[in-house]
Amino acid sequence: MTSRPRRALGAALARGWLLVLLLLAWEAAARRAQDLYFPPPTRIVRTMRELWWSGPPSRLWLSDLAVDDFVPSVSHLLLGWALAGVAGIVVGVGVGLSRVAFHLADPVLQFGRAVPPPTLIPFFMVAFGLGTSMQLAAIVFGVVWPVLLNTADGVRSVEPLQLDSARVFGLGGWARLRYVVLPAAAPRIFAGLRVALGFALILMVIAELMGSGEGIGSRLNAAEREFRPDRLWAGIVLLGAVGCVLNALFLLVERRVLAWHRGARRTIT
Amino acid sequence: MLDIAGLSHRYADGHQAVEDVELHVARGELVSIVGPSGCGKSTLLRCVAGLQRPSAGDISVAGRAVDGVPDDLAVVFQDYTRSLFPWLTVRDNVALPLRRRGLDRAERRARALAALAQVGLDGTAGKYPWQLSGGMQQRVAIARALAYRPALLLMDEPFGSVDAQTREDLEDLLLSVRGGTDGPGTDAPGTPAPGTEGMTILLVTHDIDESVYVADRVVVLTGAPGRVHSELPVELPAPRDQIGTRALPAFVRLRTEVGRAVRRPCTP
Fold it and tell me: Which among A60, A183, A202, B127 is least surrounded, fewest beta carbons within 10 Å?
Protein backbone atom coordinates (compact mmCIF):
# COMPACT_ATOMS: atom_id res chain seq x y z
CA MET A 1 0.00 0.00 0.00
CA THR A 2 2.80 2.43 0.86
CA SER A 3 4.99 1.47 -2.03
CA ARG A 4 2.50 2.32 -4.75
CA PRO A 5 2.41 6.09 -4.33
CA ARG A 6 6.14 6.05 -3.85
CA ARG A 7 6.61 4.18 -7.10
CA ALA A 8 4.30 6.63 -8.88
CA LEU A 9 6.34 9.50 -7.46
CA GLY A 10 9.52 7.84 -8.66
CA ALA A 11 8.08 7.45 -12.16
CA ALA A 12 6.97 11.08 -12.20
CA LEU A 13 10.44 12.18 -11.15
CA ALA A 14 12.11 10.02 -13.76
CA ARG A 15 9.97 11.52 -16.51
CA GLY A 16 9.61 15.08 -15.24
CA TRP A 17 13.03 16.10 -14.00
CA LEU A 18 14.00 17.88 -17.20
CA LEU A 19 10.78 19.92 -17.13
CA VAL A 20 11.41 20.89 -13.52
CA LEU A 21 15.01 21.80 -14.32
CA LEU A 22 13.95 23.97 -17.26
CA LEU A 23 11.34 25.75 -15.11
CA LEU A 24 13.89 26.44 -12.43
CA ALA A 25 16.39 27.76 -14.98
CA TRP A 26 13.72 29.95 -16.54
CA GLU A 27 12.72 31.26 -13.14
CA ALA A 28 16.30 32.10 -12.23
CA ALA A 29 17.08 33.71 -15.58
CA ALA A 30 13.88 35.77 -15.63
CA ARG A 31 14.44 37.03 -12.09
CA ARG A 32 17.95 38.10 -12.93
CA ALA A 33 16.97 39.81 -16.15
CA GLN A 34 13.98 41.67 -14.65
CA ASP A 35 12.60 42.05 -18.15
CA LEU A 36 8.95 43.11 -18.41
CA TYR A 37 8.47 40.95 -21.51
CA PHE A 38 9.74 37.80 -19.87
CA PRO A 39 8.11 37.37 -16.47
CA PRO A 40 9.29 34.41 -14.35
CA PRO A 41 7.03 31.32 -14.25
CA THR A 42 5.88 32.07 -10.70
CA ARG A 43 4.59 35.44 -11.88
CA ILE A 44 2.78 33.78 -14.77
CA VAL A 45 1.17 31.27 -12.44
CA ARG A 46 0.14 34.09 -10.07
CA THR A 47 -1.44 35.95 -12.98
CA MET A 48 -3.25 32.80 -14.08
CA ARG A 49 -4.58 32.37 -10.56
CA GLU A 50 -5.73 35.99 -10.32
CA LEU A 51 -7.45 35.79 -13.68
CA TRP A 52 -9.01 32.35 -13.62
CA TRP A 53 -8.59 30.52 -10.30
CA SER A 54 -9.77 33.04 -7.72
CA GLY A 55 -13.34 31.73 -7.55
CA PRO A 56 -15.15 29.86 -4.77
CA PRO A 57 -14.11 26.25 -3.98
CA SER A 58 -17.65 25.10 -4.81
CA ARG A 59 -16.87 25.96 -8.43
CA LEU A 60 -13.41 24.33 -8.43
CA TRP A 61 -11.97 27.80 -7.74
CA LEU A 62 -12.88 28.91 -11.24
CA SER A 63 -13.48 32.65 -11.39
CA ASP A 64 -16.30 34.30 -13.36
CA LEU A 65 -13.70 35.28 -15.89
CA ALA A 66 -12.59 31.65 -16.23
CA VAL A 67 -16.14 30.56 -16.96
CA ASP A 68 -16.51 33.39 -19.47
CA ASP A 69 -13.24 32.49 -21.19
CA PHE A 70 -13.08 28.69 -21.02
CA VAL A 71 -16.66 27.72 -21.74
CA PRO A 72 -16.94 29.32 -25.18
CA SER A 73 -13.43 28.32 -26.20
CA VAL A 74 -13.54 24.69 -25.14
CA SER A 75 -17.16 24.12 -26.16
CA HIS A 76 -16.57 25.56 -29.63
CA LEU A 77 -13.41 23.53 -30.00
CA LEU A 78 -15.11 20.29 -29.03
CA LEU A 79 -18.27 20.99 -30.99
CA GLY A 80 -16.33 21.89 -34.13
CA TRP A 81 -14.09 18.86 -33.75
CA ALA A 82 -17.07 16.53 -33.21
CA LEU A 83 -18.98 17.91 -36.22
CA ALA A 84 -15.89 17.60 -38.39
CA GLY A 85 -15.24 14.11 -36.99
CA VAL A 86 -18.73 12.86 -37.87
CA ALA A 87 -18.68 14.52 -41.29
CA GLY A 88 -15.16 13.27 -41.99
CA ILE A 89 -16.00 9.68 -41.03
CA VAL A 90 -19.27 9.60 -42.97
CA VAL A 91 -17.81 11.10 -46.14
CA GLY A 92 -14.55 9.19 -45.71
CA VAL A 93 -16.40 5.85 -45.50
CA GLY A 94 -18.45 6.77 -48.58
CA VAL A 95 -15.38 7.74 -50.55
CA GLY A 96 -13.35 4.79 -49.27
CA LEU A 97 -15.94 2.14 -50.08
CA SER A 98 -16.23 2.98 -53.75
CA ARG A 99 -13.21 2.98 -55.99
CA VAL A 100 -14.98 5.22 -58.48
CA ALA A 101 -15.94 7.73 -55.80
CA PHE A 102 -12.38 7.74 -54.50
CA HIS A 103 -10.81 8.45 -57.86
CA LEU A 104 -13.35 11.16 -58.57
CA ALA A 105 -13.05 12.78 -55.16
CA ASP A 106 -9.33 12.46 -54.63
CA PRO A 107 -8.21 15.59 -56.55
CA VAL A 108 -10.91 17.65 -54.85
CA LEU A 109 -9.92 16.32 -51.42
CA GLN A 110 -6.23 16.91 -52.04
CA PHE A 111 -6.98 20.49 -53.03
CA GLY A 112 -9.27 21.06 -50.09
CA ARG A 113 -6.64 19.75 -47.73
CA ALA A 114 -3.95 21.91 -49.30
CA VAL A 115 -5.84 25.16 -48.69
CA PRO A 116 -4.44 26.57 -45.43
CA PRO A 117 -7.56 26.75 -43.23
CA PRO A 118 -6.78 30.17 -41.62
CA THR A 119 -7.00 31.78 -45.06
CA LEU A 120 -10.69 30.99 -45.05
CA ILE A 121 -11.37 32.81 -41.81
CA PRO A 122 -11.71 36.23 -43.50
CA PHE A 123 -14.21 34.65 -45.85
CA PHE A 124 -16.15 33.07 -43.00
CA MET A 125 -16.13 36.47 -41.25
CA VAL A 126 -17.77 38.02 -44.29
CA ALA A 127 -20.17 35.13 -44.70
CA PHE A 128 -21.17 34.55 -41.07
CA GLY A 129 -20.13 37.75 -39.31
CA LEU A 130 -18.12 37.70 -36.11
CA GLY A 131 -19.08 35.10 -33.58
CA THR A 132 -19.77 31.46 -32.96
CA SER A 133 -20.81 30.32 -36.44
CA MET A 134 -17.74 31.87 -38.01
CA GLN A 135 -15.54 30.17 -35.46
CA LEU A 136 -17.25 26.80 -35.86
CA ALA A 137 -17.02 27.01 -39.63
CA ALA A 138 -13.30 27.71 -39.38
CA ILE A 139 -12.72 24.77 -37.04
CA VAL A 140 -14.86 22.33 -39.02
CA PHE A 141 -13.28 23.23 -42.33
CA GLY A 142 -9.77 23.07 -40.99
CA VAL A 143 -10.22 19.86 -39.08
CA VAL A 144 -12.32 17.70 -41.38
CA TRP A 145 -9.50 16.81 -43.79
CA PRO A 146 -7.27 14.60 -41.68
CA VAL A 147 -10.33 12.67 -40.48
CA LEU A 148 -11.79 12.31 -43.93
CA LEU A 149 -8.58 11.31 -45.68
CA ASN A 150 -7.52 8.91 -42.94
CA THR A 151 -10.96 7.29 -42.87
CA ALA A 152 -11.02 6.87 -46.64
CA ASP A 153 -7.53 5.43 -46.52
CA GLY A 154 -8.40 3.08 -43.66
CA VAL A 155 -11.57 1.85 -45.36
CA ARG A 156 -9.72 1.26 -48.61
CA SER A 157 -7.00 -0.78 -46.98
CA VAL A 158 -9.17 -3.27 -45.10
CA GLU A 159 -7.63 -6.73 -45.48
CA PRO A 160 -9.29 -8.34 -48.55
CA LEU A 161 -9.44 -11.70 -46.78
CA GLN A 162 -11.40 -10.13 -43.92
CA LEU A 163 -13.89 -8.77 -46.45
CA ASP A 164 -14.06 -12.19 -48.12
CA SER A 165 -14.72 -13.80 -44.75
CA ALA A 166 -17.50 -11.31 -44.07
CA ARG A 167 -19.05 -12.03 -47.46
CA VAL A 168 -18.77 -15.78 -47.11
CA PHE A 169 -20.46 -15.68 -43.72
CA GLY A 170 -23.28 -13.58 -45.05
CA LEU A 171 -22.46 -10.26 -43.45
CA GLY A 172 -23.74 -7.68 -45.88
CA GLY A 173 -24.27 -3.96 -45.92
CA TRP A 174 -24.58 -2.48 -42.47
CA ALA A 175 -23.31 -5.51 -40.61
CA ARG A 176 -20.17 -5.59 -42.70
CA LEU A 177 -19.64 -1.88 -42.18
CA ARG A 178 -20.32 -2.03 -38.46
CA TYR A 179 -18.43 -5.20 -37.55
CA VAL A 180 -15.67 -5.38 -40.14
CA VAL A 181 -14.95 -2.21 -42.11
CA LEU A 182 -15.17 0.36 -39.32
CA PRO A 183 -13.19 -1.65 -36.74
CA ALA A 184 -10.54 -2.44 -39.35
CA ALA A 185 -10.26 1.23 -40.26
CA ALA A 186 -10.47 2.39 -36.64
CA PRO A 187 -6.70 2.75 -36.05
CA ARG A 188 -6.43 5.18 -38.96
CA ILE A 189 -9.65 6.96 -38.08
CA PHE A 190 -8.31 7.55 -34.58
CA ALA A 191 -5.00 8.81 -35.96
CA GLY A 192 -6.96 11.31 -38.04
CA LEU A 193 -9.10 12.36 -35.09
CA ARG A 194 -6.02 12.97 -32.99
CA VAL A 195 -4.36 15.18 -35.57
CA ALA A 196 -7.70 16.93 -35.96
CA LEU A 197 -7.89 17.66 -32.25
CA GLY A 198 -4.58 19.53 -32.42
CA PHE A 199 -5.75 21.46 -35.49
CA ALA A 200 -9.00 22.31 -33.74
CA LEU A 201 -7.15 24.02 -30.90
CA ILE A 202 -5.06 26.06 -33.33
CA LEU A 203 -8.07 27.14 -35.38
CA MET A 204 -10.09 27.95 -32.29
CA VAL A 205 -7.37 30.34 -31.12
CA ILE A 206 -6.84 31.91 -34.55
CA ALA A 207 -10.56 32.52 -34.95
CA GLU A 208 -10.71 34.10 -31.49
CA LEU A 209 -7.64 36.23 -32.12
CA MET A 210 -9.08 37.45 -35.39
CA GLY A 211 -12.19 38.51 -33.60
CA SER A 212 -14.94 36.41 -32.23
CA GLY A 213 -15.24 38.61 -29.12
CA GLU A 214 -15.06 35.90 -26.49
CA GLY A 215 -12.88 33.06 -25.30
CA ILE A 216 -9.23 32.65 -24.38
CA GLY A 217 -8.05 34.13 -27.69
CA SER A 218 -9.93 37.37 -27.16
CA ARG A 219 -8.48 37.51 -23.64
CA LEU A 220 -5.05 37.46 -25.33
CA ASN A 221 -6.15 40.33 -27.56
CA ALA A 222 -7.24 42.30 -24.51
CA ALA A 223 -3.90 41.63 -22.76
CA GLU A 224 -2.10 42.91 -25.82
CA ARG A 225 -4.17 46.14 -25.87
CA GLU A 226 -3.64 46.67 -22.13
CA PHE A 227 0.06 45.90 -22.56
CA ARG A 228 0.13 43.10 -20.01
CA PRO A 229 2.88 40.64 -21.07
CA ASP A 230 2.20 38.56 -17.95
CA ARG A 231 -1.39 38.03 -19.09
CA LEU A 232 -0.23 37.15 -22.58
CA TRP A 233 2.05 34.54 -21.08
CA ALA A 234 -0.76 33.28 -18.87
CA GLY A 235 -2.89 32.76 -21.98
CA ILE A 236 -0.08 30.98 -23.81
CA VAL A 237 0.54 28.61 -20.91
CA LEU A 238 -3.17 27.98 -20.48
CA LEU A 239 -3.62 27.08 -24.15
CA GLY A 240 -0.68 24.73 -23.98
CA ALA A 241 -2.21 23.08 -20.95
CA VAL A 242 -5.59 22.76 -22.68
CA GLY A 243 -3.86 21.05 -25.59
CA CYS A 244 -2.06 18.62 -23.31
CA VAL A 245 -5.20 17.74 -21.35
CA LEU A 246 -7.28 17.17 -24.48
CA ASN A 247 -4.59 15.00 -26.01
CA ALA A 248 -4.24 12.99 -22.82
CA LEU A 249 -8.01 12.42 -22.61
CA PHE A 250 -8.07 11.39 -26.24
CA LEU A 251 -5.22 8.93 -25.74
CA LEU A 252 -7.07 7.46 -22.79
CA VAL A 253 -10.11 6.73 -24.97
CA GLU A 254 -8.00 5.53 -27.86
CA ARG A 255 -6.09 3.14 -25.66
CA ARG A 256 -9.34 1.54 -24.52
CA VAL A 257 -11.00 1.36 -27.92
CA LEU A 258 -7.91 0.18 -29.79
CA ALA A 259 -6.56 -2.16 -27.12
CA TRP A 260 -6.88 -5.03 -29.61
CA HIS A 261 -4.76 -3.18 -32.14
CA ARG A 262 -1.90 -2.56 -29.74
CA GLY A 263 -2.02 -6.16 -28.61
CA ALA A 264 -2.16 -7.59 -32.13
CA ARG A 265 0.73 -5.41 -33.26
CA ARG A 266 2.81 -6.40 -30.28
CA THR A 267 2.42 -10.09 -31.05
CA ILE A 268 3.26 -9.70 -34.73
CA THR A 269 6.41 -7.64 -34.33
CA MET B 1 -24.66 -31.26 -53.47
CA LEU B 2 -22.06 -29.54 -55.60
CA ASP B 3 -22.04 -29.69 -59.37
CA ILE B 4 -19.40 -28.02 -61.48
CA ALA B 5 -19.58 -28.28 -65.26
CA GLY B 6 -17.35 -26.76 -67.90
CA LEU B 7 -15.81 -24.33 -65.45
CA SER B 8 -13.16 -22.05 -66.91
CA HIS B 9 -11.69 -18.90 -65.57
CA ARG B 10 -9.34 -16.46 -67.17
CA TYR B 11 -8.16 -13.49 -65.15
CA ALA B 12 -8.16 -9.97 -66.54
CA ASP B 13 -4.40 -10.20 -67.13
CA GLY B 14 -4.97 -13.11 -69.49
CA HIS B 15 -3.85 -15.83 -67.08
CA GLN B 16 -5.96 -18.94 -67.60
CA ALA B 17 -6.37 -20.37 -64.10
CA VAL B 18 -8.75 -23.27 -64.68
CA GLU B 19 -10.12 -24.79 -67.85
CA ASP B 20 -13.14 -26.97 -68.40
CA VAL B 21 -13.33 -28.42 -64.91
CA GLU B 22 -16.02 -30.98 -64.24
CA LEU B 23 -16.70 -32.08 -60.68
CA HIS B 24 -19.62 -33.55 -58.79
CA VAL B 25 -19.67 -33.96 -55.04
CA ALA B 26 -22.39 -35.91 -53.25
CA ARG B 27 -23.98 -34.79 -49.99
CA GLY B 28 -21.85 -35.75 -47.01
CA GLU B 29 -18.78 -36.48 -49.07
CA LEU B 30 -15.31 -35.15 -48.25
CA VAL B 31 -13.45 -34.52 -51.46
CA SER B 32 -9.90 -33.26 -51.50
CA ILE B 33 -8.50 -31.40 -54.45
CA VAL B 34 -4.78 -31.78 -54.80
CA GLY B 35 -2.39 -30.36 -57.32
CA PRO B 36 0.82 -28.45 -57.77
CA SER B 37 0.85 -24.81 -56.81
CA GLY B 38 -0.52 -22.55 -59.48
CA CYS B 39 -2.89 -25.15 -60.88
CA GLY B 40 -5.96 -23.07 -60.11
CA LYS B 41 -7.09 -24.83 -56.92
CA SER B 42 -7.80 -21.61 -55.09
CA THR B 43 -9.50 -20.06 -58.09
CA LEU B 44 -11.76 -23.08 -58.28
CA LEU B 45 -12.65 -22.70 -54.60
CA ARG B 46 -13.27 -18.97 -54.90
CA CYS B 47 -15.62 -19.61 -57.79
CA VAL B 48 -17.58 -22.18 -55.78
CA ALA B 49 -17.73 -19.75 -52.85
CA GLY B 50 -19.18 -17.09 -55.11
CA LEU B 51 -16.25 -14.76 -54.42
CA GLN B 52 -15.14 -14.98 -58.02
CA ARG B 53 -17.40 -15.02 -61.05
CA PRO B 54 -16.01 -17.60 -63.51
CA SER B 55 -15.51 -16.67 -67.15
CA ALA B 56 -17.44 -19.74 -68.26
CA GLY B 57 -19.20 -22.80 -66.90
CA ASP B 58 -21.88 -23.62 -64.38
CA ILE B 59 -21.66 -24.18 -60.66
CA SER B 60 -24.60 -25.17 -58.56
CA VAL B 61 -24.74 -25.81 -54.84
CA ALA B 62 -27.65 -27.90 -53.57
CA GLY B 63 -29.28 -27.55 -56.96
CA ARG B 64 -29.13 -23.75 -57.05
CA ALA B 65 -26.83 -21.97 -59.48
CA VAL B 66 -24.13 -20.00 -57.71
CA ASP B 67 -24.65 -16.29 -58.13
CA GLY B 68 -22.99 -14.56 -55.23
CA VAL B 69 -22.12 -16.39 -52.03
CA PRO B 70 -24.44 -19.39 -51.48
CA ASP B 71 -26.45 -19.37 -48.26
CA ASP B 72 -25.31 -22.53 -46.60
CA LEU B 73 -21.62 -22.25 -47.26
CA ALA B 74 -18.62 -21.62 -45.05
CA VAL B 75 -14.94 -21.25 -45.88
CA VAL B 76 -11.82 -21.90 -43.83
CA PHE B 77 -8.99 -19.90 -45.38
CA GLN B 78 -5.33 -20.77 -45.14
CA ASP B 79 -4.32 -17.42 -43.68
CA TYR B 80 -6.05 -17.43 -40.31
CA THR B 81 -4.25 -14.25 -39.19
CA ARG B 82 -6.03 -12.31 -41.90
CA SER B 83 -9.37 -14.07 -42.05
CA LEU B 84 -10.17 -13.79 -38.33
CA PHE B 85 -11.10 -10.40 -36.93
CA PRO B 86 -8.46 -9.23 -34.43
CA TRP B 87 -10.83 -6.70 -32.82
CA LEU B 88 -13.26 -9.41 -31.74
CA THR B 89 -12.74 -11.98 -29.02
CA VAL B 90 -12.52 -15.62 -30.03
CA ARG B 91 -16.14 -16.14 -28.99
CA ASP B 92 -17.38 -13.12 -30.96
CA ASN B 93 -15.40 -14.20 -34.01
CA VAL B 94 -17.26 -17.49 -33.95
CA ALA B 95 -20.62 -15.91 -33.06
CA LEU B 96 -20.59 -13.03 -35.55
CA PRO B 97 -21.65 -15.03 -38.65
CA LEU B 98 -24.59 -16.45 -36.67
CA ARG B 99 -26.32 -13.06 -36.79
CA ARG B 100 -27.50 -14.13 -40.19
CA ARG B 101 -29.01 -17.29 -38.77
CA GLY B 102 -31.71 -15.41 -36.93
CA LEU B 103 -30.49 -16.43 -33.48
CA ASP B 104 -30.62 -14.09 -30.51
CA ARG B 105 -27.50 -13.02 -28.68
CA ALA B 106 -27.65 -15.74 -26.03
CA GLU B 107 -28.19 -18.49 -28.60
CA ARG B 108 -25.35 -17.19 -30.73
CA ARG B 109 -23.00 -17.20 -27.77
CA ALA B 110 -24.06 -20.66 -26.65
CA ARG B 111 -23.53 -22.08 -30.09
CA ALA B 112 -20.15 -20.37 -30.37
CA LEU B 113 -19.03 -21.85 -27.07
CA ALA B 114 -20.21 -25.29 -28.13
CA ALA B 115 -18.27 -25.05 -31.39
CA LEU B 116 -15.16 -23.93 -29.53
CA ALA B 117 -15.46 -26.88 -27.17
CA GLN B 118 -15.84 -29.13 -30.18
CA VAL B 119 -12.46 -28.06 -31.56
CA GLY B 120 -10.82 -28.33 -28.15
CA LEU B 121 -10.67 -24.64 -27.35
CA ASP B 122 -12.59 -24.45 -24.07
CA GLY B 123 -11.44 -21.56 -21.96
CA THR B 124 -10.22 -19.36 -24.79
CA ALA B 125 -13.56 -17.67 -25.54
CA GLY B 126 -12.61 -14.41 -23.89
CA LYS B 127 -9.19 -14.19 -25.49
CA TYR B 128 -8.33 -12.43 -28.73
CA PRO B 129 -7.16 -14.49 -31.72
CA TRP B 130 -3.69 -12.91 -31.68
CA GLN B 131 -3.20 -14.16 -28.14
CA LEU B 132 -3.35 -17.75 -29.42
CA SER B 133 -0.84 -19.89 -31.30
CA GLY B 134 -1.21 -20.40 -35.04
CA GLY B 135 -2.74 -23.85 -34.68
CA MET B 136 -5.25 -22.57 -32.14
CA GLN B 137 -6.17 -19.66 -34.39
CA GLN B 138 -6.90 -22.07 -37.21
CA ARG B 139 -9.07 -24.04 -34.77
CA VAL B 140 -10.99 -20.83 -34.15
CA ALA B 141 -11.49 -20.45 -37.90
CA ILE B 142 -12.72 -24.06 -38.04
CA ALA B 143 -15.02 -23.47 -35.07
CA ARG B 144 -16.42 -20.41 -36.83
CA ALA B 145 -17.22 -22.55 -39.86
CA LEU B 146 -18.70 -25.38 -37.78
CA ALA B 147 -20.89 -23.10 -35.66
CA TYR B 148 -22.34 -21.72 -38.88
CA ARG B 149 -23.49 -25.29 -39.70
CA PRO B 150 -23.01 -25.01 -43.44
CA ALA B 151 -24.23 -27.64 -45.87
CA LEU B 152 -21.01 -27.13 -47.82
CA LEU B 153 -17.69 -26.39 -46.17
CA LEU B 154 -14.79 -25.20 -48.31
CA MET B 155 -11.27 -25.40 -46.95
CA ASP B 156 -8.48 -23.63 -48.82
CA GLU B 157 -5.17 -25.19 -47.71
CA PRO B 158 -6.46 -24.94 -44.16
CA PHE B 159 -3.45 -26.59 -42.58
CA GLY B 160 -0.81 -25.04 -44.80
CA SER B 161 0.45 -22.47 -42.32
CA VAL B 162 0.92 -24.58 -39.19
CA ASP B 163 3.70 -26.88 -38.05
CA ALA B 164 3.68 -30.60 -38.85
CA GLN B 165 2.44 -31.80 -35.46
CA THR B 166 -0.40 -29.25 -35.40
CA ARG B 167 -1.21 -30.17 -38.95
CA GLU B 168 -1.78 -33.81 -37.98
CA ASP B 169 -3.88 -32.73 -35.00
CA LEU B 170 -6.03 -30.55 -37.22
CA GLU B 171 -6.44 -33.32 -39.80
CA ASP B 172 -7.70 -35.60 -37.03
CA LEU B 173 -9.94 -32.82 -35.78
CA LEU B 174 -11.49 -32.61 -39.23
CA LEU B 175 -12.07 -36.36 -39.27
CA SER B 176 -13.50 -36.28 -35.77
CA VAL B 177 -16.08 -33.58 -36.45
CA ARG B 178 -17.30 -35.74 -39.29
CA GLY B 179 -17.50 -38.68 -36.95
CA GLY B 180 -14.77 -40.67 -38.67
CA THR B 181 -12.36 -41.12 -35.80
CA ASP B 182 -11.81 -40.18 -32.22
CA GLY B 183 -9.79 -37.09 -32.41
CA PRO B 184 -8.90 -34.57 -29.73
CA GLY B 185 -11.56 -32.22 -28.52
CA THR B 186 -14.59 -34.43 -28.94
CA ASP B 187 -16.35 -36.04 -26.05
CA ALA B 188 -18.40 -38.30 -28.27
CA PRO B 189 -15.98 -40.12 -30.55
CA GLY B 190 -17.38 -41.79 -33.59
CA THR B 191 -20.46 -39.63 -33.88
CA PRO B 192 -20.69 -36.46 -35.87
CA ALA B 193 -21.03 -33.22 -33.93
CA PRO B 194 -24.48 -31.63 -33.93
CA GLY B 195 -25.25 -29.80 -37.12
CA THR B 196 -22.44 -31.42 -39.02
CA GLU B 197 -24.26 -34.55 -40.11
CA GLY B 198 -24.27 -34.67 -43.85
CA MET B 199 -21.92 -31.75 -44.15
CA THR B 200 -20.17 -31.81 -47.51
CA ILE B 201 -16.53 -30.79 -47.47
CA LEU B 202 -14.29 -29.68 -50.28
CA LEU B 203 -10.68 -29.43 -49.17
CA VAL B 204 -7.94 -27.93 -51.28
CA THR B 205 -4.38 -28.95 -50.45
CA HIS B 206 -1.01 -29.39 -52.06
CA ASP B 207 -0.07 -32.10 -49.57
CA ILE B 208 -0.50 -35.51 -51.19
CA ASP B 209 -0.60 -37.51 -47.95
CA GLU B 210 -3.14 -35.16 -46.47
CA SER B 211 -5.36 -35.36 -49.53
CA VAL B 212 -5.56 -39.13 -49.15
CA TYR B 213 -5.70 -39.29 -45.36
CA VAL B 214 -8.75 -37.09 -44.80
CA ALA B 215 -10.79 -37.69 -47.93
CA ASP B 216 -13.42 -40.01 -49.34
CA ARG B 217 -12.21 -39.12 -52.81
CA VAL B 218 -9.17 -37.36 -54.22
CA VAL B 219 -9.39 -35.17 -57.28
CA VAL B 220 -6.04 -34.46 -58.92
CA LEU B 221 -5.76 -31.17 -60.73
CA THR B 222 -2.95 -30.44 -63.14
CA GLY B 223 -1.98 -27.07 -64.39
CA ALA B 224 -1.61 -24.61 -65.79
CA PRO B 225 -4.42 -24.07 -66.64
CA GLY B 226 -5.97 -26.35 -64.06
CA ARG B 227 -7.88 -29.36 -65.36
CA VAL B 228 -9.09 -32.48 -63.65
CA HIS B 229 -6.45 -35.11 -64.29
CA SER B 230 -7.97 -37.99 -62.38
CA GLU B 231 -10.30 -38.92 -59.55
CA LEU B 232 -9.44 -41.62 -57.05
CA PRO B 233 -11.85 -43.04 -54.51
CA VAL B 234 -10.26 -43.49 -51.09
CA GLU B 235 -11.47 -46.68 -49.52
CA LEU B 236 -9.67 -46.66 -46.23
CA PRO B 237 -11.32 -48.07 -43.13
CA ALA B 238 -12.67 -45.77 -40.42
CA PRO B 239 -11.63 -44.73 -37.86
CA ARG B 240 -8.46 -43.51 -39.46
CA ASP B 241 -5.40 -42.65 -37.43
CA GLN B 242 -2.13 -40.99 -38.26
CA ILE B 243 0.10 -43.98 -37.63
CA GLY B 244 -2.01 -46.98 -38.56
CA THR B 245 -3.82 -45.65 -41.59
CA ARG B 246 -0.67 -44.23 -43.15
CA ALA B 247 0.98 -47.65 -42.84
CA LEU B 248 -1.79 -49.48 -44.70
CA PRO B 249 -0.81 -50.85 -48.11
CA ALA B 250 -3.93 -49.26 -49.58
CA PHE B 251 -2.82 -45.86 -48.29
CA VAL B 252 0.67 -46.26 -49.67
CA ARG B 253 -0.71 -47.36 -53.04
CA LEU B 254 -3.08 -44.40 -53.18
CA ARG B 255 -0.49 -41.82 -52.21
CA THR B 256 1.85 -43.21 -54.86
CA GLU B 257 -0.86 -42.98 -57.46
CA VAL B 258 -1.79 -39.44 -56.47
CA GLY B 259 1.86 -38.47 -56.30
CA ARG B 260 2.53 -39.71 -59.82
CA ALA B 261 -0.48 -37.82 -61.14
CA VAL B 262 0.52 -34.61 -59.37
CA ARG B 263 4.11 -34.74 -60.50
CA ARG B 264 3.17 -35.44 -64.10
CA PRO B 265 4.81 -32.74 -66.22
CA CYS B 266 2.55 -29.86 -67.08
CA THR B 267 1.05 -29.87 -70.53
CA PRO B 268 0.34 -26.50 -72.05
Answer: A60
